[in-house]
């Protein structure tokens, strides 16, 4: 391909060189008048106008042509494009040629003396097909224009340097199988970048390189068509076709390009379904239940999609009533299921004739049919150890109520359907007869009562009986047994309800009240008797009693309630009777007969409040009163003094407590800090045992001075505060002081410390403390004197 391209380029270059040489030779001699034009110059025309005033049309004064240059030239020297020459150029070198425009100075250069134009670079027509340039002749010394500028075009002459290209490849197409010859498949198109107006560089011809003899391609349009009839998708579905596009009209030396085309044959319904076997063998156990799967078979259809769908039907056979056929839509298989139970002992094999057909047919290929197939399915029944079978699906028996225990109810019967025919044992499951009203004989299935039954308590008994075969796999079966208890006349008739009948005081004679009787036996009432009553009359019809008022003048203040004893008899065997009391309450009514009140007096308690409720309310009240009395007694006991004074002595005031203190750590009874620091005792001391109701501030005049050293005044002040403080404990008649006063010469008054020390103390100063300390002064003073005397 590239060798042909180089050959073309060489020929075109040679032709261009020859053409350029001829053009140069023609410009130098008068023999080439066809390639340049001589026109009088502008300056020459002006001189003639001055002399003879002859006017001439101004023409261009320099010669030029439309130039061509071959693309992709790769020679060693620049390519001569052409030569510009002006008539005013006398060849003395005074004229300079100037070139401007597209590519001037870069691609195209001009010799300013000779006007020769050369292309310095390789040109590509596909990038730019032509260049517009402007030429002008100026004076070399002054650069003044000698001629007006003129435009000319340099066209890039095309060569076959671009191969055809398929822009949209690879291609994918499909065509139906069994299509006729010449059926259009797809059209492919190639593009050539060369100049379609010049030569055959862009003239394309299509051909098929791969895919024959199945497909062909039209040389000028690129349409691919089928070339063989009856192409079968089931034989081959995909074809890889290679198409070639060649320029230069397909001749030698042209460039070419190829494209891959993948063609797929689509399916049509041209194949019937086909069973792989003429006879299929299956088996089913006799213990299978209806709906269970027996087996599967499939007719193969090589078509695809809906063309490959298959439907199955049973045409004939002795198993049509026992088996049914359906289709698995995912696998396209025929599924044979059990329609009715089968019995090995009755029939051991069945035969079915199954047909497979296509639901969608193609009318073009009907003559190729038939599009169906048949096969035979043989199903054998396998023996299984079956449970016993009862003769009936359920049993219903009757027994009279009050019948003694051991009364025969009925008999159930079951048998083993297997060939072994094992004996049967019967049983009543306890969960169906929790109170064990019935028993059954294990050998023959006879059901009897265990005690008398009461229809009014339970009219029906629904139990189950289990039959188990002895031997084998101990299969069992169950049946439902419904036992009805027949009624006998063992209950006397009575009123359906014991509610009172409300009657107005102003009731008119002839008013009737209808009462419903409760008959526990389905017999009619024979008679109803009303005893010792002259105000009412009684009659009975079936299960109702009618009470009629025969007198007026009722008053609820005189008699609010009438109790009517009524005797009721039935006609059962034996006949039963009962005496019932009918309560008729007299009520106050308005003129329309609407009941207003049925109470005797307004203050009477409501009928709904029973005696038991009243007793409960009174008991609660008594209990609450007892709790209140007990609480008050406890409160009074707490307010009594807790300290008992043994002896009222102003000197000693010894207090006896009934409880034992907690020692030095017991700080709950007194505020020791306040007693030890009288400076902080600026208020009253609250009680610890009760919460004071009132608080009175201390009188300012009774508060001791903090710096006082007079012990007698301090004690008096504290006693006065305690006597006048209502919040102080009334039983607290002793004050404990741990404060001796600032600057006291006495020191501690504790006798405990004086016992444990060996120092001699002088107690003579106690004589000057007054009468309150006389006893103390006598004790210690006498001791000291005694010691001195000894």
TrEMBL record:
UniProt-listed CDD domains: Cadherin_repeat
One GO term describing the cellular component: catenin complex
Keyword Repeat carried by entry: yes
Topology of the protein relative to the lipid bilayer: Single-pass type I membrane protein
Localization: Cell junction, Adherens junction; Cell membrane
Gene Ontology terms for molecular function: beta-catenin binding; cadherin binding; calcium ion binding
Entry keyword Repeat: yes
Residue span, Cadherin domain: 86-166, 167-275, 276-390, 391-495, 536-604
Highest taxon in the source lineage: Eukaryota
Family matches, as SUPFAM superfamilies: Cadherin-like
InterPro entries: Cadherin, Cadherin-like_dom, Cadherin-like_sf, Cadherin_CS, Cadherin_Y-type_LIR, Catenin-bd_sf
GO BP terms: adherens junction organization; calcium-dependent cell-cell adhesion via plasma membrane cell adhesion molecules; cell migration; cell morphogenesis; cell-cell adhesion mediated by cadherin; cell-cell junction assembly; homophilic cell adhesion via plasma membrane adhesion molecules; morphogenesis of an epithelium
Keywords: Calcium, Cell adhesion, Cell junction, Cell membrane, Glycoprotein, Membrane, Metal-binding, Repeat, Signal, Transmembrane, Transmembrane helix
Record field: transmembrane: 512-530, 613-634
Signal sequence annotation: 1-23
Function: Cadherins are calcium-dependent cell adhesion proteins.
Protein name per the record: Cadherin domain-containing protein
Species for this entry: Pygocentrus nattereri
């Amino acid at each position: 391909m590239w060798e042909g391209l180089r050959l073309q380029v060489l020929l075109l270059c040679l032709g261009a060189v020859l053409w350029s040489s001829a053009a140069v030779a023609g410009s130098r001699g008068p023999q080439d008048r066809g390639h340049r034009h001589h026109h009088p110059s502008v300056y020459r025309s002006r001189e003639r106008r001055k002399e003879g005033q002859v006017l001439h049309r101004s023409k261009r004064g320099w010669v030029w042509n439309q130039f061509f240059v071959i693309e992709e030239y790769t020679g060693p020297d620049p390519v001569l494009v052409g030569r510009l020459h002006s008539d005013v150029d006398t060849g003395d070198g005074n004229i300079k040629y100037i070139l401007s425009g597209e590519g001037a100075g870069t691609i195209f250069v001009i010799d300013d003396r000779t006007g020769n134009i050369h292309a310095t670079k390789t040109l590509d027509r596909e990038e730019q097909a032509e260049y517009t340039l402007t030429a002008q002749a100026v004076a070399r010394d002054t650069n003044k224009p000698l001629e007006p500028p003129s435009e000319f075009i340099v066209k890039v002459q095309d060569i076959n340097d671009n191969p055809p290209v398929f822009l949209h490849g690879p291609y994918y197409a499909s065509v139906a199988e069994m299509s006729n010859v010449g059926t259009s498949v797809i059209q492919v198109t190639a593009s050539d970048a060369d100049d379609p107006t010049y030569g055959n560089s862009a003239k394309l011809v299509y051909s098929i390189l791969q895919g024959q003899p199945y497909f062909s391609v039209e040389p000028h349009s690129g349409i691919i068509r089928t070339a063989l009839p009856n192409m079968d998708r089931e034989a081959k579905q995909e074809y890889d076709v290679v198409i070639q596009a060649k320029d230069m009209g397909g001749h030698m030396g042209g460039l070419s390009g190829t494209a891959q085309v993948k063609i797929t044959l689509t399916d049509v319904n041209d194949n019937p379904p086909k069973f792989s076997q003429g006879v299929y063998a299956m088996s089913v156990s006799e213990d299978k239940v209806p709906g269970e799967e027996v087996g599967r078979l499939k007719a193969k259809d090589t078509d695809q999609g809906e063309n490959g769908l298959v439907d199955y039907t049973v045409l004939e056979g002795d198993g049509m009533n026992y088996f049914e056929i359906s289709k698995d839509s995912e696998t396209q298989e025929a599924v044979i299921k059990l329609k009715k139970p089968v019995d090995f002992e009755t029939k051991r094999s069945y035969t079915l004739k199954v047909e497979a057909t296509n639901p969608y047919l193609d009318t073009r290929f009907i003559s190729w049919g038939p599009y169906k197939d048949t096969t035979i399915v043989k199903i054998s029944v396998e023996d299984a150890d079956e449970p016993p079978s009862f003769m009936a699906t359920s049993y219903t028996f009757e027994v009279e109520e009050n019948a003694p225990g051991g009364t025969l109810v009925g008999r159930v019967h079951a048998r083993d359907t297997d060939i072994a025919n094992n004996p049967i044992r019967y049983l009543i499951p306890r969960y169906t007869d929790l109170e064990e009203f019935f028993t059954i004989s294990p050998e023959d299935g006879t059901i009897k009562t265990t005690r008398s039954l009461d229809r009014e308590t339970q009219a029906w008994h629904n139990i189950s009986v289990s039959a188990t075969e002895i031997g084998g796999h101990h299969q069992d079966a169950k049946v439902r047994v419904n036992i009805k208890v027949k009624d006998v006349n063992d209950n006397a008739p009575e009123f359906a309800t014991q509610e009172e009948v409300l009657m107005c005081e102003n009731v008119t004679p002839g008013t009737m009240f209808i009462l419903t009787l409760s008959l526990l036996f389905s017999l009619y009432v024979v008679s109803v008797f009303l005893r010792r009553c002259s105000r009412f009359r009684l009659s009975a019809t079936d299960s109702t009693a009618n009470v009629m008022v025969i007198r007026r003048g009722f008053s609820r203040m005189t008699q609010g309630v009438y109790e009517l004893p009524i005797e009721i008899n039935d006609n059962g065997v034996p006949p039963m009777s009962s005496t019932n009391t009918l309560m008729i309450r007299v009520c106050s009514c308005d003129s329309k007969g609407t009941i207003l009140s049925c109470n005797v007096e307004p203050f009477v308690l409501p009928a709904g409040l029973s005696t038991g409720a009243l007793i409960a309310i009174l008991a609660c009240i008594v209990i609450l009163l007892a709790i209140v009395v007990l609480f008050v007694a406890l409160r009074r006991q707490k307010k009594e003094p807790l300290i008992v004074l043994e002896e009222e002595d102003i000197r000693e005031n010894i207090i006896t407590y009934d409880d034992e203190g907690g020692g030095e750590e017991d700080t709950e009874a007194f505020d020791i800090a306040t007693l030890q620091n009288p400076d902080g005792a600026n208020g009253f001391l609250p009680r610890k045992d009760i919460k004071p109701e009132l608080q009175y501030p201390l009188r300012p005049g009774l508060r001791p001075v903090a710096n006082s050293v007079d012990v007698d005044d301090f004690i008096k002040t504290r006693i006065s505060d305690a006597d006048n403080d209502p919040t102080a404990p009334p039983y607290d008649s002793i004050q404990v002081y741990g404060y001796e006063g600032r600057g006291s010469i006495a020191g501690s008054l504790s006798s405990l410390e004086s016992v444990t020390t060996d120092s001699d103390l002088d107690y003579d100063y106690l004589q000057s403390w007054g009468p309150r300390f006389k006893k103390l002064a006598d004790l210690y003073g006498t001791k000291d004197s005694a010691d001195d005397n000894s």
